[in-house]
Design brief:
Blueprint lengths: L1 H19 L10 H12 L2 H13 L1 H25 L11 H9 L1 H38 L8 H15 L9 H25 L14 H18 L6 H5 L11 H30 L7 H4 L4 H37 L6 H21 L3 H13 L21 H17 L6 H20 L2 H20 L6
Helix pairs in contact: 2-8, 2-11, 2-13, 3-4, 3-9, 3-11, 4-11, 5-6, 5-16, 6-7, 6-13, 6-14, 6-15, 7-13, 7-14, 8-11, 8-13, 9-15, 16-17
Length: 470
């Protein structure tokens, strides 16, 4: 009796913590929330650098990489959505939870969390710089005769806004900000390509590589790949966004999530392709690393576009930051045993925003940050060993192949889902799935095997987490 009471108390305490953490505290989102959350997370600083990336890639490779990146990342996003509830009775609310399911609790945590933090913290630093630069550009255009103000002060102004918004409790509480940010991203992307198209092709436009040596062209090409990778960086918060959508066995969250995510990708295509192609077509290799810098007139339109960028990156910063807040607050409460409180949240979030502001002030190199974080966060995933997780040791020997296929597919998706060059791994996931379904067609006994597998997985979850709430 005492043992059961102790377990119930522990479960109640765990539920209270989950109800306090920003990712799991609210599950009332509508399907369209996932649309503007995904647009806000993905479209942003990256779209402004795409014409510059095209100048480094050239027409053929540039178009191919843009299209392949869009298709492949859409497919891997679908995989993430499907795997959110692939284990009966459990939701993978956070990206690292899926990694732990694949690689084990400890190994999965150490493999996934560092890379997730690199992307999320890196994006926040880049957006801190982008917000400051866009504010400065707005000031310079509106008041060309005013005294020049250092970029540092504009970054501090942008950070002060984030200091206030950072204290909103959860992802659903910033939905209005995210919606405004998504509308702004569509607006300034349209301004960017429409204004460029209106100016037309510039005199003496040159489509050759800017670098005059093979070595220089090679490194420019690699930098451009990092820029494109950064532009499709929204996968890191997909599971966190889906966690806010209500779910039940009859109405799983994957259907509304996928509907919203697919619509978001259509918006992404409308933003990315015109900006990249028209920007490069009009300016050639003389385009700036931020397309809005290349545009000078009409001044009022350029000022408006830069202010739209500021509003958008305010929302984008919060989308990525709230996932970091969740990681930090989880560690503080569950590992270091701090009591959940307003003061803990206030100090943690204020310090985080202050640190990203400090790094942004020290390294205000917009394009360099894009390529650095894009390459540094995406490239290592290519070299993950194709390991399989043996966490389901209770599977019968005859069930090993089906369990291995499931784990192998999960391992590939965790290892490669963010990398634009993951077409090979994505094909292998497809091949593994095809193996599973074809073998089911050829051998009727596999139906029973899969049913037993599903039941045993469900029993394991209930045994390990009897009070799990969805």
């Amino acid at each position: 009796m005492a043992y059961n009471e102790s377990r119930n108390d522990a479960a109640a305490k765990e539920k209270a913590i989950d109800d306090w953490l920003p990712i799991t505290s609210s599950r009332k989102a509508k399907w369209w929330y996932s649309t503007f959350h995904n647009v806000t997370a993905m479209v942003g600083a990256g779209v402004l650098s795409l014409p510059y990336a095209m100048a480094q890639l050239g027409w053929g490779p540039g178009i191919a990489i843009l299209v392949l990146s869009w298709v492949i990342t859409l497919y891997t996003l679908w995989q993430m959505v499907e795997m959110h509830e692939m284990v009966p009775g459990k939701r993978f609310d956070r990206y690292h939870e899926l990694g732990q399911h694949v690689f084990g609790d400890k190994l999965g945590l150490w493999i996934v969390v560092p890379q997730q933090l690199i992307v999320q913290v890196g994006v926040n630093i880049v957006y801190m710089v982008t917000g400051g630069k866009s504010l400065k550009k707005f000031h310079d255009v509106v008041c060309p005769n005013c005294k020049d103000i250092r970029l540092t002060y504009f970054i501090m102004i942008f950070a002060s806004v984030q200091m206030i918004l950072a204290h909103l409790p959860n992802l659903n509480s910033i939905s209005v900000i995210s919606l405004a940010a998504a509308v702004m991203s569509l607006s300034y992307s349209t301004i960017a390509w429409a204004s460029t198209l209106n100016k037309g092709v510039q005199p003496d436009v040159d489509y050759s590589y800017k670098a005059r040596t093979r070595t220089g062209a090679f490194f420019d090409f690699i930098t451009a790949l990092g820029d494109v990778a950064f532009a499709y960086a929204g996968h890191n918060v997909v599971l966190e966004i889906q966690a806010t959508i209500p779910s039940s066995p009859e109405k799983p969250s994957k259907k509304p999530m996928w509907r919203g995510a697919f619509l978001a990708y259509l918006v992404v295509a409308f933003c990315y392709f015109p900006v990249a192609l028209i920007g490069y077509w009009c300016y050639g290799n003389s385009v700036d690393d931020n397309i809005l810098i290349s545009l000078q007139k009409p001044s009022w339109l350029i000022a408006a576009a830069n202010m739209f960028v500021v509003i958008h990156v305010i929302g984008s910063y919060q989308i990525y930051a709230i996932a970091v807040f969740d990681l930090l607050e989880t560690a503080l409460v569950k590992k270091l045993h701090f009591s959940p409180s307003f003061m803990l949240r206030f100090v943690t979030r204020t310090v985080y925003v202050g640190l990203t502001m400090f790094v942004g002030i020290c390294i205000p190199f917009f394009n360099g940050l894009l390529s650095f974080f894009g390459g540094f966060a995406f490239a290592p995933t290519t070299y993950f060993p194709r390991t399989t997780n043996s966490s389901h040791e209770h599977l019968a020997k005859s069930d090993y192949r089906a369990g291995q296929i499931r784990r192998e597919g999960l391992s590939y998706c965790i290892s490669y889902n963010l990398k634009p060059s993951s077409i090979v791994s994505s094909w292998e996931i497809y091949y593994l799935n095809r193996q599973l379904y074809e073998s089911t067609d050829q051998n009727g006994e596999m139906d029973g095997l899969l049913l037993r597998l599903q039941n045993e997985l469900k029993e394991a979850v209930v045994k390990e987490e009897p009070n799990l709430h969805i």
